[in-house]
Amino acid sequence: MRTRESVTSVIKAYDVRGVVGRDIDANFIRDVGASFASLLRAEGENQVAIGYDMRPSSPALAEAFAEGVTAQGLDVVMLGLNSTDELYFASGTLDCAGAMFTASHNPAEYNGIKMCRSGARPVGQDTGLAEIIDLMVSGVEPYDGVTGKVSSRDILADYGAYLRQLVDLSGIRPLVVAVDAANGMGGHTVPEAFRDLPLDIRPLYFELDGTFPNHEANPLDPKNLVDLQRFTVEQGADIGLAFDGDADRCFVVDEKGDPVSPSAICAIVAERYLVTNPGATVIHNLITSKTVPEIIAENGGTAVRTRVGHSFIKAQMAESGAVFGGEHSAHYYFTEFFNADSGILAAMHVLAALGAQEATMSEMMAIYNRYEASGEINSTVDDQAASTQAVLDAFADRIESIDHLDGVTVELKGTNAWFNVRASNTEPLLRLNVEAPTSEEVAELVAEILGVIRS
Questions:
Q1: Using an 8 Å Cβ cutoff, are 270 and 263 in contact?
Q2: Which CATH class for the 4-153 domain?
Q3: Residue 328: pLDDT band by 50, 70, 90 thresholds?
Q4: Structure letter (DSSP) for residue 54
Q5: Please, what CATH class does the domain formed by 158-260 belong to?
Q6: Is residue 104 flagged as an active site residue?
Q7: Using CA atoms, how far apart are residues 16 and 10, in angstroms rounded to an integer?
Q8: pLDDT in tens, 403-428
Q9: Sequence-ordered strand ranges (E) for 14-82
Q10: pLDDT cut 70: percent of the chain above it
């Protein structure tokens, strides 16, 4: 019998994730598959598509999961090597639940599962994971019906064709595009998605290797962008793209090798959608730059602010009928992609905008860079609530407004500066984000707030 503590250390707010051999093994994953299938069967679903990334542990774990699913009477479609957004595509077009084996940007010893219901609908703590945890602790009742069947399907070509249909790049000016796949699944999906387009792709680290021999597949960390920055300039590329391990996130550098803020990418994609969908709703999470809701309003759209996290964004997308949603972590969500996120689809929108005019990437993005930001800064604390309150006390006489949508977001009096402090769902961390008109103001606020948090 498993303890609740041992299960919740692996099944987190949005997905399953842990160190292979220490936190998860085939038996654990087999039971997760059975628990997921039991939940789905009660809801009337009858099939699960399963894909996996290039990590050495992924194929065996995916097979164990499939055993758990079929033991509960559901059929399985094995997709083989997939990016996470390719799995969402399969869930959407096959109208079945899905499970993607990946640990995204985590180091090689990790693995995990991102799950969804049919139509790529999210499975998070409030939408299924809590029930799966209960079943993992209590034990899944054996199913006395017919064991599910297993089939195989390769959807890569269909996925690529679908993306090219959503964003027409055939008429853009030719672009040189440097791409760092970080030995992750971008090396598998980029060649197919960009097939026969006026793009001269310059590949970096496209060999699939889940040991990540060149650098971590986590472009959110600046040190993992260094190779792409250098490579983009060396190649004389118009733009550089970096994907994380499962290729559902895309980061951008300009022709000078300078990083482009994910918030700026949110703004430009939102603007493109509002041209073809006047007055539409666009989602942004609460740590994106103020530029994003400003651009949405200036283009006649309705901005809806949400919590951080894909399950919240996807639920809000469905509820509000939004055409697009963006997070500052470089997750981008699209209504015509089943409200799911796709790094390559976001990249295609940026390439379409860049290729439709003659300006350089840095020139094109200049109007979207209105503020300076700290990026996310983590601090280990013993008492998250007490540390958060200490920050609020320190700023009590300077607070213009405050909300508690996700942690605390504080607007400061007499300035366009704001900050957000929120607790991690899985670790004893406080996460800080600061934005202000100048880098000097950002640095001063960061120093002051961290001085309180870390005292």
A1: no
A2: alpha beta
A3: confident
A4: S
A5: alpha beta
A6: yes
A7: 6
A8: 999 999 999 999 999 999 999 876 78
A9: 16-19, 47-52, 75-81
A10: 100
Question: Any idea what DSSP says for residue 452?
Answer: H
- Do the Cβ atoms of 210 and 101 come closer than 8 Å? no
Cα separation, 401 vs 411, whole angstroms: 5
Sheet holding 175-180, edge to edge: 199-204, 175-180, 239-243, 250-253, 259-260
In three-state secondary structure terms, 439 is: helix
- Write out pLDDT tens, residues 231-265: 999 999 999 999 999 999 999 999 999 999 999 99
Residue from 184, 324, 179, 196 nearest 238 by CA: 179
Kindly tell me the burial class for residue 413, based on how many C-beta atoms sit within 10 Å of its own C-beta (0-12, 13-18, 19 or more): exposed
Distance, CA of 254 to CA of 116 (rounded, Å) = 34
Structure tokens that stand for 366 in this block: 């200049």
Chain region(s) in the chain for CATH 3.30.310.50? 372-453
Catalytic residue among 38, 57, 58, 104: 104
The CATH classification number of 372-453 equals 3.30.310.50
**Tokens of residue 371, six digits:** 């503020």
* Residue in 302, 291, 328 with CA at minimum distance from that of residue 313: 328
Q: What is the DSSP letter of 11?
A: B
Sign of dihedral through CA atoms 316, 318, 321, 326? positive
The first and second tokens of residue 62, run together, are: 């995916």
State whether residue 288 is helix, strand or coil. Answer: coil
